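Quick note —
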Amino acid sequence: MPAADDAHRLAPVTLERLMDQLRSAVVGEKVSERTWQRIYAPPLRRLINTAGERSWPTDESLLLTTLKTWEPNSRARQMAHDRIRRMWKQAGWEWPADAAELRGNGKAAADPEGVRAFTDAELQELRARIERSIARHKLTPADLVAWDCLMVFGLRPVELQGLQLAEQQGVPVATITREKKSSKGRSGARQCPAVPPAGWPADCSGLVERFNQHGIPPAMTKAASPGEVMAQQLQRLKGQPAIESTIAAELTPYGCRHAFALRLALQLGMHTREAAALMGHSPAVHLSTYGRRLDSPRLLGDVIARVKSQT
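Predicted structure written out below.
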């Protein structure tokens, strides 16, 4: 790679070569080709396109201009910053302090109420819209099974792959065999009983029987990302006329998982450690994800009660 004082090192052709070197270094060792294409390549490609717009006298000027194309304090800017910085490290170039400051703080822009989960009414509305789509032959009974599994087991969409269901004392129990791998380790197989929204029958409308009859749609079991398939379905379902109520525009399939986590705490009163085990992650991750929704109201109530007791 060109030295740090080389006047041509910020040229697109040089950055292209550096991007290829980084790809060779991380694909297969740390990330998959698909992750490279989804997570690494887009911000690096934007950097290279920006580099081709004119001559850049310093790293700082190119990097700041590129990073400012993402919203401040957004997760997208943070990820772009980290991927581009990784490429700079690959070349042995110094990362400017001003670029580091531009990374921002995604938590500062986070919703103070915490994660956005489906309410019970929204889940019921979603289910009604799926049933209407089945009647119109746009979705299948297997699609409803998949969505019901997300709702009552709190699954990640990818965990629909390899899913097994059985019934114990009239309650569906899922065996999740799909491992989740990350830099913090991996989660193995686990079992999780159904925790349905309020008003649902214990057997979740014969979920195990329907699972055995229809299974999970091949579009999800064979997809590289079942979540993308379900996100597209959800987007179309949101566009349908409401049956009884609306569905918030910002909700994603993960909103079903978030709703499950809140039911474990608010409906069943489960300890963080127990809830985290059922959901297949660590207590630390559980608290960082759901702490605002679970702890803030309790803390607020405790403080108000103590203040009132002293007046």
